[in-house]
Design a protein that fits this description.
FAD/NAD(P)-binding domain; Enolase-like, domain 1; five-stranded parallel β-sheet; 26 strands; binds flavin-adenine dinucleotide
Length: about 425
């Protein structure tokens, strides 16, 4: 790092940006710290938006990462409702949407992702919705009152979590998925099959291998979803959950390297040493991705990654540099079922099923080595898997599939 570091500016007040700010103070950074976020709310957690918050089981206050007083107490200047519109790398400053310029010694980009738009006619009709922000969730909570038929496009995590909440309210829910199974990019066929069955038992209908060609409307409102094979599925509300794209334009326009994410090194630095980037918006080298079809650089969308990268970066900026090496992990609550994933699996990784008592786990192997573990209502397997992956301990497929084999002893030994 060249020169004294007196001012750090963070772009994006989500999970990663907030964590970096909090961890910088915890690690003793005493300079000026500004957290610029385009959303109006205090930094909040997104996961409950498609779970407890959507179901009305928690309020907006329960989502906050910290109460308002925390920011003043820790001298974190939170600037809500403000967008950073440009970076002047030579002058080390950022331009804000209110016209102000803010100078920095170090800049942290934590801009997250946005939902992929559905590229068909009618996608802009009223009643076609997405779920990313608190505003989206508030609008959805209001919109699902008093309606009957929901069509979800995309059987990924958010689509399925939304479907589960709606089905539990007695709504009629159809999920349309282009692939042949649920969560196809993220989990094994075994886990997909189990979750398809869980959702069907809860009353959800699936259409697999189905393309959407249009949203049909009447008077500006969506009334049906048309599929490639000519079906027209009536809908009072359509939720589009077809993945996200990284918010990388700010970095790209400033000449930083981007490729499906802002490119960073193992220390979370961009191609400009005065700018780092963390969270959903970055692509980074990971030993857990080694042998994956896309190479050993990944972009990960998870709370774990956002939090651990925020902490890792704060440590480097306060004089304790370490390469980022955290085990990826993730969870998804779908109805009463809890899915937890440790590690990163490629679609072609082998699967070994382990069943003991309630729930099950699928152990994934790439080139004979453990790559990931998907656990359904098996938190102990998940915790053991995180330890095994962190330590790079050897587990054979035979051991994984043997319910009598003591995983915990291997993980902690
Ligand atoms: P974000 O939290 O998206 O924050 C980025 C922020 O930057 C946003 O507020 C954005 O408005 C702001 N921003 C962007 N550009 C600018 C700019 N130019 N100027 C100012 N501000 C800007 N993960 C899990 O591990 N488990 C779950 O169960 C889970 N459930 C989820 C459910 C939902 C509905 C969603 C949407 C996500 C879920 N996730 C879950 C993913 C998790 O929330 C994200 O991985 C995490 O929020 C990423 O943090 P981030 O800070 O990188 O991005």
């Amino acid at each position: 790092m060249s020169g004294p570091m007196e001012t750090i500016v963070i772009v994006g007040a989500g999970q990663a940006g907030f964590q970096a700010a909090a961890s910088l103070r915890e690690a003793g950074f005493s300079g000026r710290l500004t957290l610029v976020g385009e959303e109006a709310a205090l930094p909040y957690q997104r996961p409950p938006l498609s779970k407890a918050y959507l179901a009305g089981k928690t309020d907006a206050r329960g989502l906050l990462l910290r109460q308002e007083s925390f920011f003043a107490e820790h001298r974190i200047a939170h600037r809500p409702g403000i967008r950073v519109t440009a970076i002047d790398r030579a002058g080390r400053s950022v331009r804000l949407s209110d016209g102000e310029d803010l100078s920095y010694d170090h800049l942290i980009l934590a801009t997250g992702t946005r939902n992929r738009a559905l590229p068909v006619p009618g996608a802009d009709l009223d009643g076609v919705r997405q779920l990313r922000s608190l505003d989206d969730a508030d609008a959805l909570r209001a919109a699902i009152e008093g309606i009957h038929r929901i069509v979800v496009i995309g059987a990924g995590f958010i689509g399925l979590e939304f479907a589960a909440v709606c089905a539990a309210r007695g709504l009629s829910v159809t999920v349309i998925e282009a692939a042949e199974r649920v969560m196809a990019r993220a989990v094994s066929p075994e886990t997909s099959e189990a979750f398809r069955a869980f959702h069907e038992e809860a009353g959800v209908t699936f259409l697999f291998g189905a393309g959407v060609t249009a949203i049909e409307g009447e008077g500006g409102r969506a009334v049906a979803v048309r599929t490639a094979d000519g079906q027209s599925l009536p809908a009072d509300l359509v939720l589009v959950g077809i993945g996200v794209v990284p918010n990388q334009e700010l970095a790209a326009e400033a000449g930083l390297a981007v490729r499906d994410g802002i490119e960073i090194d193992a220390f979370l630095a961009t191609s400009d040493p005065a700018i780092s980037a963390i969270g959903d918006c970055v692509r980074f080298p990971s030993r857990f991705a080694s042998g994956m079809p896309g190479g050993d650089r990944v972009r990960i969308e998870s709370v774990q990654n956002a939090v651990d990268q925020g902490r890792c970066l704060a440590a480097r900026l306060t004089g304790r540099p370490a390469a980022y090496d955290a085990v990826p992990w993730f969870w998804s609550d779908q109805g009463p079922r809890k899915l937890q994933i440790a590690g990163l699996a490629a679609p072609s990784d082998a699967s070994v099923l382990r069943r003991a008592g309630a729930g099950f786990s699928v152990f994934r192997f790439r080139d004979g080595a453990l790559s990931a573990v998907e656990s359904v209502d098996r938190p102990a397997d998940h915790m053991a898997a995180r330890r095994l992956l962190a330590a790079g301990k050897r587990l054979t497929p035979e051991q994984a599939g043997d319910p009598g084999f003591d995983l915990k002893a291997l993980a902690t030994g």
